[in-house]
Amino acid sequence: MSGLLANKLTNANPALLIELPGMAVVKASGPDTDTFLQGQLTCDLTHLEQHNWLLGGHCDAKGKLWSIFRAVRSEDSILLLQNRSTAEHSLAQLQKFSVFSKIEITDSTEHFSCFLVAGEQAVAKVSELVGGTPTELHSTFGDTHVLSLSPTLYLCVTPKTNKPNARMLPESYWHAIQIEQGWPNLAAVHQSTFIPQMVNLDSLNGVSFKKGCYIGQETIARTHYKGQNKRRLAHLIGTAESTPAPASELEIKLGENWRRAGAVISAVRYDNDVIAIQAVLPSDLDAQAELRIKGQNDSKFTPCPKSDETESINE
């Protein structure tokens, strides 16, 4: 079984299976589903077809994120796949605004099993597990959904009764992949804290600036067109005695002093004791910046070089 090592997961051979107990499945169905969700979410659902998926966000009236999701069609319904810790509050907000629409929005997580297939032989492994070869960004095999996140990474959502009887790696492997790929891993502790641009959702094609109005749109659009966003998602690498929890504060060295720099979104410790951090930090962060975790004065982190991996394949 492959160890947790930096930049080795998506190219693993043989393919890795990663269990995702922390992923929720929110289901929306009814004749008003598309119309209602179009007025609630940052993505443009007119571009959501049976063969693709959309990344998007659900925001409050101030444009701050309740959740980040991947949306897929399931017959006449739409499934929102998101961090389980954000589902309860996000679902409550959607239900509150849906009372005058012909739509039913429920947490269907208990009916599904979610797992990830990663590596050079991922397609072959998915085919073995689901009985068909995924050829689209979103492929279905019976009641099983397969989302192609990259050429070597597939997200599978299957009924609980169809869960593969195979040994799977823990969810920390998924967190590591998200950090390396630049995909935001928003948790409940971050809800109503960041606008989409602060976690790079716009760069990942998760925000439409051409669709009509939706909740939080005014703030998001103004920030975009006036260039007012001063914070972005960053990938740090370094060492520390303790792995920081989500929302832990980071400090940056300025001369001989340390000042607050931002907050941790997610963090993982690799098998070689190196720690990777996903954090929201100043967008003009210097490539040579020195950072540390507040309260861990011996910790030391530096930014990872930027790459094109933060671009979504789902265009």
What do these coordinates show?
Pfam families: YgfZ_barrel. This protein has 315 residues and is of the alpha+beta class. The chain has a domain at 16-170: Probable tRNA modification gtpase trme, domain 1 (Gyrase A, domain 2, 2-Layer Sandwich). The chain has five helices and 16 strands. The chain has helices at residues 33-38, 84-97, 122-130, 172-181, 217-226, and strands spanning 16-19, 23-29, 54-59, 65-74, 77-83, 104-107, 112-118, 138-141, 144-150, 153-159, 231-239, 249-254, 257-269, 275-282, 291-293, 296-303. Strands 11-14-13-12-15-16 form a six-stranded antiparallel barrel.
Oligomer: single chain
Strand order of the largest sheet: 11-14-13-12-15-16
Low-confidence stretches: 308-315
The overall strand count is: 16
Overall pLDDT level = 94
Q: What's the overall geometry?
A: globular
CATH homologous superfamily grouping of the domain at 16-170: Probable tRNA modification gtpase trme, domain 1
In short:
By secondary structure, the protein is an alpha+beta fold. It has helices spanning 33-38, 84-97, 122-130, 172-181, 217-226, and strands spanning 16-19, 23-29, 54-59, 65-74, 77-83, 104-107, 112-118, 138-141, 144-150, 153-159, 231-239, 249-254, 257-269, 275-282, 291-293, 296-303. It has five helices and 16 strands.
